[in-house]
TrEMBL record:
The keyword Nucleotide-binding does not apply. It holds the Pfam family adh_short. It is an enzyme of class 1 (oxidoreductase). It is found in: Endoplasmic reticulum. Catalyzes the reduction of 3'-oxosphinganine (3-ketodihydrosphingosine/KDS) to sphinganine (dihydrosphingosine/DHS), the second step of de novo sphingolipid biosynthesis. It comes from Pelodiscus sinensis. It comes from the Eukaryota. Keywords: Endoplasmic reticulum, Lipid metabolism, NADP, Oxidoreductase, Sphingolipid metabolism. The keyword Transcription does not apply. GO terms for cellular component: endoplasmic reticulum membrane. It catalyses: sphinganine + NADP(+) = 3-oxosphinganine + NADPH + H(+). Its EC number is 1.1.1.102. This is 3-dehydrosphinganine reductase.
Length: 333
């Protein structure tokens, strides 16, 4: 009897250890003196992320295509220096085209500023429209920029990070990478893809003390967002209004904090919180409180989510009826 009890205790202890081991929080990354690479660093969220890291004492490499925009942003960032050693390096490259090119420029950056401590994959773009209205080439282009454009820089830095047994890699997904919405047939899959990639990569690199973060920002006031809004279908606009437009500085602050702490999930606001719990699936956890919240809240958030889905369906239906009506009146004219 005693033996049985002892065996049960051992089994319980082993099970507990298995459950708790993935919950151990990593040691925060120290930003002062660190080398942070930000792709898409010349505009919007990427620019604010670069400023946030620079303010905390990091050395920055900005990556984007347009050189004059890069130089202008470099000047802007340099206003926030906290010591006279800090450097902002600019590199013009398309992250989505040629892997060899991306590898070369990252090698150059590491020769100048040392090995990369944190890579933030922010380069990306959105095209919205009804499925049949989008050109087929959009699907390839968005996958290339948003997905492969994050894989290539990560591939170029991972070996050194593993050797050094430290590092952070951040992927900027989107709330549209947590649920598919009207108008986002080309964009959403690229952001979902980042999540799958990040989960697989995190499992590989965790024993090397490298932590991966996926950020899911809501609509954010940036030049990219302004551009996207010009051609957005009415349905997408109305559905998106469910959650408010954020400031890029705010998104950047949260993202950098989560990346430093090594949190897998980075979200903002109350719907961001609900979505992240609801879509946590088999993604890694980085704290016991996070795990508990997922276990307790998932069911109730699903119920709330069903109301959201109902309202989205009704928006789409109303827009369709409206459109058909106006088409009919056009015909009778
Ligand atoms: N704004 C929003 O509402 C949201 C945005 N996001 C995501 O956040 C990221 C940043 O968005 P946002 O700040 O709005 O975008 P912006 O359009 O304002 O900035 C995009 C940046 O990426 C660079 N970039 C674009 N394509 C490439 C490329 N092929 N190679 C290298 N650099 C490139 C741009 O520079 P250049 O053109 O000179 O190359 C620019 O620096 C994107 O991944 C976006 O999907 C996620 C959720 C919401
Ligand atoms: C319990 C569940 C709550 C669910 C709330 C859902 C709210 C949905 C709003 C979706 C907004 C879409 C953001 C896309 C942003 C983006 O990536 C583009 N702007 C890129 O430029």
């Amino acid at each position: 009897m005693l033996l049985l009890l002892a065996a049960a205790c051992v089994v319980a202890l082993v099970l507990l250890l298995y459950m708790v081991s993935p919950l151990i929080s990593p040691k925060p990354l120290k930003l002062p003196g660190a080398h942070v690479v930000v792709t898409g660093g010349s505009s919007g969220i990427g620019k604010c992320v670069a400023i946030e890291c620079y303010k905390q004492g990091a050395f920055i490499t900005l990556i984007a295509r347009n050189e004059s925009k890069l130089l202008q942003t470099k000047k802007e960032i340099e206003k926030y220096s906290v010591n006279d050693k800090q450097v902002v390096l600019c590199i013009s490259v398309d992250v989505s085209k040629d892997y060899g090119h991306v590898e070369n420029v990252l090698k150059q950056a590491q020769e100048k500023l040392g090995p990369v401590d944190m890579l933030i994959n922010c380069a990306g773009t959105a095209i919205t429209g009804k499925f049949e209205d989008l050109e087929v080439s959009c699907f390839e282009r968005l996958m290339a920029v948003n997905y492969l454009g994050s894989v290539y820089p990560s591939y170029a830095v991972i070996a050194t990070m593993k050797e050094r047994r430290m590092g952070r890699i951040v992927f900027v997904s989107s709330q549209a990478g947590q649920l598919g919405l009207f108008g986002y047939t080309a964009y959403s899959p690229t952001k979902f893809a980042l999540r799958g990639f990040a989960e697989a990569l995190q499992m590989e690199v965790k024993p090397y003390n490298i932590y991966v973060t996926v950020a899911y920002p809501p609509d954010t006031d940036t030049p990219g967002f302004a551009e996207e809004s010009k051609t957005k279908p009415l349905e997408t606009k109305l559905i998106s209004e469910t959650s408010s437009v954020c400031q890029a500085e705010q998104v950047a602050r949260v993202l950098v904090k989560d990346a430093i702490q090594g949190n897998f999930n980075s979200f903002m606001g109350s719907d961001g919180y609900m979505l992240s719990i609801l879509t946590s699936g088999m993604s890694p956890v980085t704290s016991i409180t996070e795990a508990l919240q997922q276990v307790v809240c998932m069911g109730i958030f699903r119920i709330i989510g069903l109301f959201y889905l109902g309202s989205f369906d009704s928006i789409v239906r109303r827009c369709m009826i409206q459109r058909e009506k106006s088409e009919n009146t056009d015909k009778t004219k």
